[in-house]
Design goal:
Pfam family, one (chains A, B): LacI
Number of helices of chain A: 14
Distance between the termini of chain A: 78 Å
Keywords (chains A, B): DNA-binding, Repressor, Transcription, Transcription regulation
Strand order of the largest sheet of chain A: 2-1-3-4-5-11
Structural class of chain A: alpha/beta
Organism (chains A, B): uncultured Thermoleophilia bacterium
Strand content of chain A: 15-25%
InterPro entries (chains A, B): HTH_LacI, LacI/GalR-like_sensor, Lambda_DNA-bd_dom_sf, Peripla_BP_I
CATH class of the largest domain in chain A: Alpha Beta
Helix content of chain A: 40-55%
CATH superfamily of the largest domain in chain A: Response regulator
Order of helices and strands of chain A: HHHHHEHEHEHEEHEHEHEHEHEHEE
Oligomer: homodimer
Protein name (chains A, B): HTH lacI-type domain-containing protein
Chain lengths: ~350, ~350
DNA sequence: CGCGTTCCTGGGAACGTTCCCATCGGCGGC
DNA sequence: GCCGCCGATGGGAACGTTCCCAGGAACGCG
């Protein structure tokens, strides 16, 4: 290996200028395809840059332009595939508008999230998208003082902060209505606890049951957004006197826990009990699981978040916009009419 | 909303200096806890900064210091949970050494990956970690010219580029030995096709079978690293004359496909057929799946990658180091002795 | 009380760009 | 053929920090 590879020497615009025999200004313009550069010079500059392996310094550029052409996305948990798809949407829109996407993560930890947000702000990304963060509203509001902020999958109200969420109440209603239309009446909910959106899903479940005249059949078991939580919730439902013929789980992961509990109890799905998840993650689509579930338009949520950021970046001011996207039901193998008993 | 929130005005060190009645130099030192600042001034500066909502500009700092205290990680696919855990390791070590981690992604697309790497290089991150990238070796080598580069989960040999991988051959051997120790002889492999590591796993499988005197029982079915691929591979194994009593899948995802095929064929797991996956993803740990699998030390791989980067950052030169970590077997519910038939 | 030393403090340069403006030819029109 | 204009080019300032260095205040000691 040459010495060059060991010590990081990086050519600057001045090196290119010297090699091409022109001024730094001309190099700058030539490399950015600015109009007033003669073809001959342009070629010479290109070649010199190529030979030197020159790469523009985005740091210096950001400093002088006072913008980075970059949006920062803080994701609370990369272990949750939900965010990967949100990011797909963000990146698709960003790329189409000449923005680069930088991702930071807070690993399910409040302090780490605050730190990650701080990193983005110090880096002076042009906008910040916060995906389902646990950040204090104070921090969010503070961030909004210096940069456009969009919240995804969190409905908090902060002045000037746009939000993009999914209609959790409606999603829960879809699940209940689907099961009712199959003929179920004893439809129980394994709750998501304090997870984001779970309160709205619970309300939606209750409202839908009431609207269908099934208020007496309402049954909510405590759970959370994990495999284990779903398992516990289902166990408690199964020990009751009148076991439900259908269960709505807080999310897909919890639904797999429900599946485990049902299997242990010797109950077949969907012959004995029907099951609906929430999120339509890749997990639900696995044939071994093949879970009927509520689809959240995650990619669209990411797209919408990025578009909201772009609107602010283009000078769009005014009050916060709160976009609520609609979920839909995806039927797979875990729901059917109750056994004619 | 105040006008302030709409237009992004950001105080600079000069604003803080003016408010505190000191020079910019002093502000700089005070805020960085440099030694030679009197307590009174330090407090005054702190307060002024606080009141203004001052946040240091990392861009300007990077420019003058010629380092960013940041490492960039390019991840080829955030939909693959493997990377989330690698990132856990990277972040843990980075945080312990005062480095921030910036993530970019190439969404399984070569061109996008090249672009993402370019972003990192232009941003002048102090080091770059490439997680299982599809990047051309030319690009990797070019990047190495200006910054320390570490490859994770890809064993390519590039001058000066450290690599951290897992011993796939040994992992496959562990799976085979486990099954053989349970009494299995007809142990088949559902292959991972051209996926990373799958060639080494195939070789490991063959070698282990041979070493155990089971060369005649070798059976490899074409598959890939997806649910669907595992399903197809298992189907072809089950239509053969002598069906295997045990199957090794290319990875955990493929193993769920195998589970589906086995269920469809009316075979019980592990009573009729035992199954071993690879990766030990969260999927394998779900009780509904409860898959015996080969654990890859992903977090450790991330840690090792970051440590390798730190070593280069501290001036460590010399030839590339290639670290190979050892996998281990995690026994769950999908393996047992073959039915005494 | 003077002098040297130790703390503090402030000014200026530098980092690598972009942008504005001035300059310099050359060319076309009257 | 002169004047004005336009296209091409270069020089300098600015972006917001950090770092180096010079200078000043305070203090101790003889």
């Amino acid at each position: 290996m040459s010495e060059r590879a060991e010590r990081a020497w990086r050519p600057t615009i001045l090196d290119v200028a010297a090699r091409a025999g022109v001024s730094k200004s001309l190099v700058s313009r030539a490399l950015r395809d600015a109009p007033t550069v003669s073809p001959a010079r342009r070629a010479a500059v290109r070649q010199a840059a190529e030979e030197l392996g020159y790469r523009p310094n985005a740091v210096a550029r950001s400093l002088v332009q006072r913008r980075s052409h970059t949006v920062g996305v803080m994701v609370s948990d990369l272990h949750n595939l939900f965010f990967a798809e949100v990011l797909d949407g963000v990146e698709a829109v960003a790329a189409g508008h000449g923005y680069r996407v930088l991702i930071v993560t807070g690993n399910r930890d409040r302090a780490a999230e605050e730190q990650a947000l701080e990193t983005l702000l110090e880096l002076r990304t042009d906008a910040v998208i916060l995906a389902s963060s646990r950040l204090s509203l104070r921090s969010v509001a503070a961030a909004r003082q210096s940069v456009p902020v969009t919240l995804v999958a969190r409905a908090a109200r902060v002045a000037g902060v746009d939000t993009v969420t999914n209609d959790d109440g409606r999603g829960a209603r879809l699940a209940v209505e689907h099961l009712a239309s199959l003929g179920h009446r004893r439809i129980a909910l394994v709750d998501g606890g304090s997870g984001p959106g779970s309160a709205a899903r619970r309300r939606g479940y209750r409202a839908a049951m009431g609207a269908l005249g099934l208020a007496d059949e309402i049954g909510v078991a405590a759970g959370d957004f994990t495999d284990e939580g779903g398992y516990r919730g289902a166990r408690s439902l199964l020990t009751g006197s009148s076991r439900p013929t259908a269960i709505c789980a807080g999310n897909d992961l919890a639904a797999t826990g429900v599946l485990t509990a049902l299997a242990e109890a010797g109950l077949r799905v969907p012959a004995d009990v029907s099951l609906v998840g929430y999120d339509n993650t890749a997990l639900a689509a696995l044939r071994h699981v093949s879970l009927t579930t509520i689809h959240q338009p995650r990619t669209e949520m990411g797209e919408a978040a990025m578009r909201a950021a772009l609107r602010r970046l283009d000078g769009g001011a005014g009050r916060a916009r709160r976009l609520v996207l609609q979920p839909s039901l995806v039927q797979r193998a875990t729901t059917a009419s109750p056994a004619a008993s």
